[in-house]
Amino acid sequence: MIFSNKLILWYLQNKRDLPWRKTKNPYHVWLSEIILQQTRVAQGLDYYLKFIDAFPTVNHLANAEESTVLKLWQGLGYYSRARNLHFSAKYIVNELNGEFPKTYKEIVKLKGVGDYTASAIASMCFNESTAVVDGNVYRVLSRYFGIDTPINSSAGIKEFKALAQSLIDDSQSGTFNQAIMDFGAIQCKPKKPLCLFCPFADSCVAFQKNKIDLLPVKEKKLKIKNRYFNFLVIKTADHKTILKERKGKGIWQGLYQFPLLESEKSIDKNDLISSEMFNEMFPNEVSISLFNKKEVVHKLSHQHLHTQFWIIELNHQKDANIDWKAIENYPVPVLISNFLEEYLS
User: Fold this and answer.
1) Among the options 33, 295, 313, 341, which is catalytic?
2) 80 membership: H or E segment, kind and range
3) In this structure, what CATH number is given to the domain that contains residue 37?
4) From start to end of the chain, where are the E strands?
5) pTM metric for this prediction
6) Number of structural domains the chain divides into
7) Which part of the chain is the HhH-GPD domain (predicted)?
8) pLDDT in the model for residue 248
9) Taking CA 210 as the corner, what is the angle to CA 204 and CA 216, rounded to the nearest 5 degrees?
């Protein structure tokens, strides 16, 4: 209890003023947690406010078109979060009569909700004593207790979950969970943590043994895959273009993109013209120019997308049915959104 008492005291003096902390509405907390899964608070806050404004209740979200949800999510990345959010909202409304589940075991069944998110909602909204473990918590616990078990290993995940659960204050589990997350974000930061002003400095193993920069430990990352994207940006004489919705599985599922030619390496204009896809789309002569003289490298967790945008101008293209004036209404990956912002400016 000494650890939790000291932590909560720190939290009461230093906690961040965030809108989802002013309510026990599980819909609001759920939305904030999904947004913050792969996003910093500074960026996620604006998206949270936009979503609450557009969809004030789970019913509003459930009744929205998926393309509307994806458009509002645009720029946050990891779009499966938005699709799962929408799917689960419809499930809550249609299968649970609009009642948000109230226990960890029921909350974790929602699509896109894992142990961390379910623990956060259950503790903050329903006072269930379930410990959260996210990147901040891993860092705090590994440093304080001097644990070098890799946090992204099966053994590490189990060890840190059990440790966090043993430390939680059952009488104020939601406050404890928010306290340890804020402590990791504000005090025990990844780089340049505020050790000299830390209430745990006299008992922190990493500080005492000068291992702050060595903890937490992560197993080696997967090898990054390089992919080469060539988007064909069509512009007809009557200002029409082609945008296609990405089908099937994938991070951009449900988003729209220009026709895509993926190559094994960077290509030039001659390579483009000689490709089978290009000749099928453009049997007649067209005007071709490369918009970005330097490749745009879009970095995802396990792959880097080396991207070129080719401007194709011609009189007519049978599949070009989207007016350029309406193009900003379509949800697109941030890679294409950034191109459009520059191209249309």
Assistant:
1) 33
2) helix 80-95
3) 1.10.340.30
4) 225-236, 240-241, 244-245, 256-257, 260-263, 287-290, 296-299, 303-314, 322-323
5) 0.83
6) 2
7) 35-186
8) 83
9) 70
